[in-house]
Structures are given as structure tokens and as C-alpha cells.
Amino acid sequence: MAMHLTADEEALLDSDNPAVRKAMELLVRLGDIYGADEMVEIASAQASGISYKSIGDPGMEFLEGFAEEGAEVRVQTFANPAGMDIDRWEEMGVSPEFAKKQRRILQALREMGVTLSFTCTPYLAGNLPRRNQHIAWAESSAVSFANSVIGARTNREGGPSALAAAITGRTPKYGLHLPENRTATHRIHVDPSLDTQADFAALGSWTGSIVEDEVPYFTGVEDATTDDLKALGAAMAATGAVALYFVEDITTDETPPIDAETLAFESGDLESEYADLTDTEDTDLVVFGCPHSSVEEIERIADRLEGESIQGDMWVCTSRSNKTWSDRQGYTDTIEAAGGTVLSDTCNVVAPIEEMGYESTATDSAKAATYLPGFGNQRVKFDDKLSLLEEVTE
Ligand code: F3S
């Protein structure tokens, strides 16, 4: 059955503006495919697929053409990380050709009114939805955080559908926009204590590969910081396609599912996850900040590196706004005096690191460890921050 459209939505479908018309047509098609009855208005959007490395010339030309046709966002729309730090790309080792194309993408997004935030943690950088608010976000780790920790409602949008939602201010009401789909399918009891952010990432990596796109409910987790939860969700969204999870007494007042399949995460699973995510001990780049680092994470790294000297290269990736606070606090100076680099706007997965001569990366992110072999041609070492910092300062 075709979706019911309001008079305003019918008008968007008949708009004189070709970009608006195309955006609405795409959303109607999506809604029909997923059996949505109607559209829902959204409070914000988040556009992904804006690194030149990810979309190449065809994607760049599509965005430029769309902007030229009059595409303009109607709701606050943040952009996911780009392929380079917009200011420090030369220092990173990005080629001028790549930088030129990335700037063309930036210009197209600017013309559409997209906030040039270039971060995967919009919720830490000025785009914070509220509980039960409908949004259309595309970055999978941010989708997971928004649904699970904040309680907002978004599906895992693709780059085009998030942009279409931004331009029309709407998205089809299906999937996680509907309360009946926001219930747990698996109950996972976590036996070992999770002592580091990397432990949470390892739990996420294990869980995502088992539950795939379903909804886990964790019990046995005693405490978790915001950074732990962002690492957990990012990992589950990478090894699986988890867009919503619950942690008893931490993320939600939801009661544990009664009939759901119950699984146990044991100490041995935690250990083997570290081993499974690692295929080298020798690395030429250490990267923190996947998802983008909070100021607290940067502070911890700076505290550990005070007066130290790093062997090899180290990147700390964060949002532009968190970089500003880190500059003011002196954290950036401390990290860079030790030999590291604090980068904004980008990350080691969407930057062209394989073209910069890097062959192996150390990370405390299970998401980065999952994507880097295929997307960056890297061998990977996965470990927690302090252990990796210990190694690079030995
Ligand atoms: Fe963000 Fe890049 Fe990781 S977009 S979640 S830092 S792969």
C-alpha cells in the first residue's frame, strides 16, 4: 500500500525545485520498500559519505550537481568526517589533488547549508537530540549512540537518504522510528569486569558479529562512561549492524526481555576478541579517536604523554570543537610536544592513509580495527589506550 502523504509532502513531491523533488521521490520509494504508512518530521540530520576517499569523482560530482539544482537543508545537518583535516592536510601528508577534490565536496555541502562539522560524534559537538525525537542520521556509531544512550529515534540511514531527509525535513516512519521495533531481541550477560574503553569495544565487536542487526540487552555491566558507550556502540555497528542496544541500569529504564535468547560473554571471549582484532605487533601509526575523541579522552592521553617522547607517528582524531577546547587547555601542545598530532575533521579510516605510506596501525577502537584492513589496506594491532601509549613511549 502506498504511503499517506500530507498536502505539504505532496507539494514537495511536485516542487519546482528539482533537488527537493528528487529527495522526496527517494524517500517515498524508501518508505514504500519498507512498508511505512507515513512520513515523520525530523529534528536533525547527519550526512555521511563525504570523504573524497569514500565517494570519489562520481560522489563529488553528484553533490555539486545537487547543490547547483538548489538542494538546501531544512533542519540542522551535521557532516561526518572528511578525508583530511581541512587546515592541516599538508602536514598529514595528503596530496594536493586529493585536497582539491575534498574542498570541492566541502563547498557543495556549504552551498546546501550543511554544518561543516566533519565529526562522527555530533552529539558531543553541538547537535544533541532529545529522547523520542525523530532524526535521520547516517554515521552508524552516531546512530547507535543516539538511539541507545540518548533515546532519540533514527534508522541507519545511507548518505543519500540522510541528505534527502535533510532537504525535505522528513523521513519515512518505519524501523526504529516505531516503538514496537525498539525492544531487545537478545539478552547478553557480561561476566568479566570491563576495565577499559577497549574492553567495551571488544564486547561490542563480539556482540555485533553474533546479533548482526538485532537489539542486544546487556546485563552485568557495573558502570560505563559516555566514552565506553560510544566505543561499545561503534564496534557493534561495525562487526554487525546494531543500531540500538540497552545496558541495564545505565542506558535505559527498559526492563530486560523475558523471551529473548540469552548469551554469556565470558573472560575467554574478551581475551580472544583482542587476539582476533590483531594481526601484527609492529605498527607504524597509532591512532586514537574512533569515534572522535571526547575532551576527557584527549586529556587522559595528554596526561600520560607529559614530558614523554613518542616513537613513530600518532594521531588523535577529534571534532573541531573538541580540538579548540584541547588547544585552550594545553592538551594539544602536550601531545604534539611528545611527537603526536591532534587532527580535526577526519579519521584514519576515511583519510587516504594507505597512500601516505602507512602499512600497519595500532588502535583502541574495534570499529577501526574492523575497517582498516579492507578500507585502508592496514595490518592492525588492537589494545587499550594506556598499553599502546606505554609501547610508543618505551
Ligand atoms: Fe568516526 Fe572514522 Fe571511526 S568516522 S566512528 S572515527 S571510522
Remind me, CATH topology of the largest domain?
A: Aconitase, domain 3
- Helix share of residues? 40-55%
> Averaged pLDDT, please?
96
Total DSSP helices: 15
The global form is: globular
Largest sheet: 5 strands, parallel
For the CA atoms, what is the radius of gyration? 21 Å
SSE ordering? HHEEHEHHEHHEEHEHEEHEHEHHEEHEH
Report the β-strand fraction as a percent range: 5-15%
CATH top level of the largest domain?
Alpha Beta
CATH homologous group name of the largest domain: Aconitase, domain 3
The chain-level structural class is alpha/beta
Which second-level CATH architecture of the largest domain applies? 2-Layer Sandwich
Ions, cofactors and other bound molecules: FE3-S4 cluster
Q: What spatial order of strands do you see in the largest sheet?
A: 12-11-10-13-14
Q: Please tally the β strands and state the result.
A: 14
Give the CA-CA distance, first to last residue: 65 Å
Low-confidence sequence ranges: none
